[in-house]
User: Fold this.
Amino acid sequence: MRNVSPKDLVGICINTGSAEQLGFSRPAAHPHAFVFYNESMQQVLRHKWEIKKMPKKPYADTRLARFIDKRVLELRPKKSQIEIAIDSGFVSVNMLSMLKKGSSKLPIDRVPSLARALEVDPAYLLRLTLEQAKGDTIAQALVEIMGTPVTGNELGWLQEIRSASDHTDPRMTGRNRAAIRSIFGK
Assistant:
């Protein structure tokens, strides 16, 4: 072995279980071993270890996670998060918490029951679920094949527009667009 200065070595004590988790073979003669690595190897090990113990929340920044979190808070005076999870038919009541935090995605087959439990339109919840599950590409394909999903609330607006226009199929003009946008403060 060549002479190595102490500055080049960093001592890390790894028990055999941790070494195996990180992809190293078990030390032959010792149940525990001191393994010395240079700084770059220590950074690799530290990175691998942090990845293994870091909680993964790949869907935390999705519109669905934010929507479920907001809706559970809105329903808090009427029912608890556990009641919502049970009404949704989740086997684990923690599933709703995992959806809110973004650590899990909503299975598409749970959209109708969760929509009922959250008291929201299933078409809107489906749209958010598709965005989360496969990204905008799948949502766009669904819209292209089946048309834009219309929620119950949007249908109410459409029916009122038809009634107000005497079912004349009014064109969307700049003035009409401005009037609608002003309703929503835009």
Observations:
- The first strand starts at residue 10 and ends at 15.
- The beta strands are 10-15, 32-37.
